C-alpha cells in the first residue's frame, strides 16, 4: 500500500469533512426565510444533524469498520445487499449535486470576469461546467493528500474567511444604524407550522446539513481515528450551525427579499456591503473568485468520498472486477471515471434543457434528495441494530448516556429522515401551475427506477461473487 496517503491530521480531515457540508453559497437560500432561519437551522441541527454526526462517529470507530464508511456500517448490521444499496444511493445523489455546485462557480466566474455570456449562453455554460468538473476530478487522482490540500485552502479561505468577512461587514452595517431589511421582533423567529410550505422549507434546511457521514471513507487514513474522528465531527457540528446561522442572517438583514437572487445572492450581499462602505468593484470580483475556492474544495471532497466507499463494495465482488482497480495513490480510478461520465450526462441534459428554469431540473434535484434520504434511513437502522444486537463490539467512541439514549438519538434522526422523505415529494411552487401532476409522476417513476438499480446489480454481480466464495 502506498504510504504517501498516510496520515491525515485532525485539521486535514476536518477540512475535508467541513468542505462537504459547509457552503457559503447557501446563505441566500437560508435568507429567504428571514429570521425564521435561526429556528430552522437550530432545530434542524439538533433533530437531524447532531444525530447523523453522533451515530456516524460511533460506527466509524468500531474496530474493523474503519474502511468503507456507510457501506461497511450497513453491511455489518443489515447485510451486504443493503450496504451496497446505501453506498450506491450516497454515490448516485452527488452526481446531480455536482452540477448545482459547478453552476455557482460558473456564475461567480462570469461575474468576476465581467463575461455574462459564460452564464447565459448554454453552450459556453456547458463547456465551462464540463471543463471545471473534469479538472477537479483529475486533480483527485493524486489521492487523499491532494484532497486534503485543496480542502484546507478551500475551507479556510473560501468558506471560513469569506463567511467571517461577510458577518463583520453585516455587524458594522447594523451597528451604524443603517436600515435592516428584516424584522427582529418577537414574532419573526418562530415559523407558522400550520402552512404546508413551512414544512417544505424546514426539510430544505435539514438537508443543508447532509454529507457529514461521507468523509468516513477516509477514517482509515487518519492519525489516531478513534480520538480524532469524533472530535472533528463534533467541532464541525458547532461550526456549521454557527456559521450558517450568522451568514444567512447577515444576507437576510442587508438584501431586500424581492431583490434576493438564490443563484448569486451571496455575491449580491458582498457587493451591497462593500459598495456601502466605499469599496471598489474589484473587491467584489475578488470575493467571488475566493468563494469559488470553497466550492472547488467541496467538489474535490465529494469526488473521492463516496467513490472510495464504493471501492470497498467493488473489492467485495459487488461490482464488476474492473471497478476495483486503483492507481498508485489508491484512488478507485474506474469508479471515479464512471462517476464523471454520469455527471457529464447530467450536465448536458440539465444545461441544454434550460438550467434551473425547467421541470427536469427540479425533478433531478428532488430525486437526489429522495434517494439520499433512503441512505440516511438505512444509516439510522444500522446504528439501532448495532446498539441492540452488537453492543459488545469494541469502539473508541460512544454516544454518551447509555443504550436508551443512543437508541433515542437514532430514532429522532430516523423519524426526521422519514418525515423529510415524504415532504420532499411535494412539488415546489417554482414549477408553475398545472405541472404538479407531471412533476410528481416523473419523480416517483424515476425514484422507483433508481432504487431498484443497486438490487439488480447485487443480484447479477454480488450473488455470483458470493457463490464463488
Please provide a written account of the structure.
This protein has one domain: Amino acid/polyamine transporter I (Up-down Bundle). Helices cover 71% and strands 0% of the residues. The protein has helices at residues 10-21, 27-31, 36-60, 70-78, 80-112, 117-120, 122-139, 144-175, 196-207, 225-254, 265-276, 281-315, 333-352, 359-389, 403-423, 436-468. The radius of gyration is 22 Å and the shape is globular. Mean pLDDT is 85; it is low at 1-5.
Task: Give the helices and strands, then pairings.
Layout: H1 10-21, H2 27-31, H3 36-60, H4 70-78, H5 80-112, H6 117-120, H7 122-139, H8 144-175, H9 196-207, H10 225-254, H11 265-276, H12 281-315, H13 333-352, H14 359-389, H15 403-423, H16 436-468
Helix pairs in contact: 1-8, 1-10, 1-12, 3-9, 3-10, 3-14, 3-15, 4-5, 4-14, 5-7, 5-12, 5-13, 5-14, 5-16, 7-12, 7-13, 8-10, 8-11, 8-12, 11-12, 14-15, 14-16
Keywords:
469 residues, Glutamate/gamma-aminobutyrate antiporter, mainly alpha, disordered N terminus, transport, Amino acid/polyamine transporter I, 16 helices
Compute the number of strand runs.
Answer: 0
Largest sheet data? none
Cα gyration radius (Å): 22 Å
Overall body shape:
globular
How would you name the CATH homologous superfamily?
Answer: Amino acid/polyamine transporter I
Structural class: mainly alpha
Query: Number of helical runs?
Result: 16
Main location: membrane
Protein name: Glutamate/gamma-aminobutyrate antiporter
Membrane topology: Multi-pass membrane protein
Organism: Enterococcus casseliflavus (Enterococcus flavescens)
